[in-house]
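Help needed: design a sequence for this.
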């Protein structure tokens, strides 16, 4: 059902003032994410009213799809018993995320109200640092011991399925809770009831350490086309699983953060809609201020070649065109390298080979752009300036491309985020180099002496 249809249906039901049963039935026919989208556009009091009439499990699913800021506002006005019931019915990873955004006092009070097993589970999952695989994993998985038969495993899954996030993978653990194998639900259903799990399981299980980065987990999920990946501790004991939907959320956050870094906005994972004006000014200003002072070097370069400019004023006409071309070429290269490094498509060891490839590509692009600008130079000033402009174009495009391609590698080498090789930074470096290259060639070729 489309968003517009959801809005029309629910608004019509509310306006008709039918009983809560009719509204509950209409809501629970929708996907939780669709209802959450609609709720986010209504008043907080309306959200709490709708949540209050929903069944426990469905209510928890809808609440999990709400934006964290909305969750926080709703939690502030929900009665405490409803809040505890909501947390109890949420997915293990979702409730940890919720408790992290609540006020510390309320969060601690909710945790104290839970059963011992659930309380321990929340505290264990909360111990993992942000950015690690453990911070996005859930302990809500299906498992069996090594001595289990297919008959016993099927019976166990049937009993536990309503409370598990996913049952498509069955994790096989030994007596020390170490992960020793994996069995899909399909293989389990096709097996003989008397078969033993250890005879059917796949012993070579793709897994990550709970302390590994979230990015590594998402890369492995994508590479091996998994619906979930187990996270283990340093002793191989299963700690939880990271599902594909959680990995997609992580990938989206990482991509957003990288785009913000490429633009030097400083926003990181912050929502553009939620960020205030003062925050936006403070986050975006630092890099721009740094780049202002970097561009002083461009001005100094122009001042140094003042005699060249006085001798051939027409050179100034081509200055913006040339340095912008170098910056644009550098930004292209930087974007390609940052993305390739982020996805694991290239590694540090690939730099030298990619350097040679980039030189050839940049020369090819530079020559094509030089031919175009030489025509303008010839008709605008004359053949001598045309030679200066076209040769400068080749070198500036080459310089900008190599800066843009190499800077992400250099940053990664010194353990900085390659995304910091932002377009404005590359452009500023290309501008400085472009000014020096352009006027140096002009001074030499046109035989102008500097005073």
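Sure. Designed sequence:
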């Amino acid at each position: 059902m489309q968003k517009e249809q959801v809005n029309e249906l629910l608004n019509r039901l509310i306006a008709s003032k039918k009983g809560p049963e009719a509204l509950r039935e209409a809501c629970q026919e929708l996907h939780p994410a669709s209802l959450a989208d609609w709720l986010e556009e209504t008043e907080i009091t309306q959200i709490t009213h709708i949540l209050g009439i929903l069944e426990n499990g469905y209510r928890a699913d809808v609440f999990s799809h709400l934006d964290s800021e909305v969750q926080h506002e709703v939690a502030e006005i929900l009665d405490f018993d409803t809040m505890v019931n909501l947390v109890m019915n949420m997915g293990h990873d979702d409730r940890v995320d919720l408790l992290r955004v609540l006020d510390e006092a309320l969060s601690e009070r909710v945790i104290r109200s839970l059963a011992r097993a659930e309380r321990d589970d929340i505290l264990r999952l909360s111990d993992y640092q942000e950015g690690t695989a453990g911070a996005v994993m859930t302990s809500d998985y299906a498992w069996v011991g090594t001595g289990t038969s297919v008959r016993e495993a099927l019976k166990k899954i049937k009993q536990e399925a309503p409370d598990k996030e996913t049952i498509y993978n069955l994790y096989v653990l030994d007596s020390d809770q170490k992960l020793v194998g994996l069995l899909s639900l399909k293989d389990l259903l096709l097996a003989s009831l008397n078969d033993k799990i250890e005879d059917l399981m796949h012993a070579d299980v793709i897994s990550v350490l709970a302390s590994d980065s979230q990015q590594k987990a998402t890369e492995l999920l994508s590479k091996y086309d998994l619906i979930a990946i187990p996270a283990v501790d340093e002793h191989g004991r299963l700690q939880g699983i990271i599902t594909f939907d959680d990995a997609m959320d992580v990938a989206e956050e990482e991509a957003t953060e990288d785009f913000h870094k490429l633009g030097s906005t400083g926003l990181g994972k912050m929502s553009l809609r939620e960020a205030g004006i003062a925050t936006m000014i403070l986050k975006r200003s630092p890099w721009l201020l740094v780049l202002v002072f970097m561009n002083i070097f461009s001005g100094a370069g122009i001042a140094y070649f003042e005699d060249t400019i006085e001798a051939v004023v027409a050179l100034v006409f081509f200055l913006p065109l040339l340095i912008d071309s170098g910056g644009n070429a550098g930004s292209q290269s930087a974007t390609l390298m940052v993305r390739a490094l982020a996805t694991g498509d290239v590694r540090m060891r690939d730099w030298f080979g990619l350097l040679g490839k980039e030189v050839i590509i940049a020369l090819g692009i530079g020559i094509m752009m030089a031919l175009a600008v030489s025509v303008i130079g010839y008709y605008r000033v004359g053949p001598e300036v045309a030679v200066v402009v076209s040769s400068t174009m080749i070198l500036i495009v080459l310089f900008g491309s190599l800066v843009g391609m190499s800077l992400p590698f250099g940053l990664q080498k010194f353990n900085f985020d390659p995304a910091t090789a932002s377009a404005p930074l590359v452009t500023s470096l290309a501008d400085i180099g472009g000014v020096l290259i352009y006027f140096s060639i002009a001074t030499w070729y046109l035989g102008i002496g500097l005073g």
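Residues 383-413 form the longest helix (31 residues).
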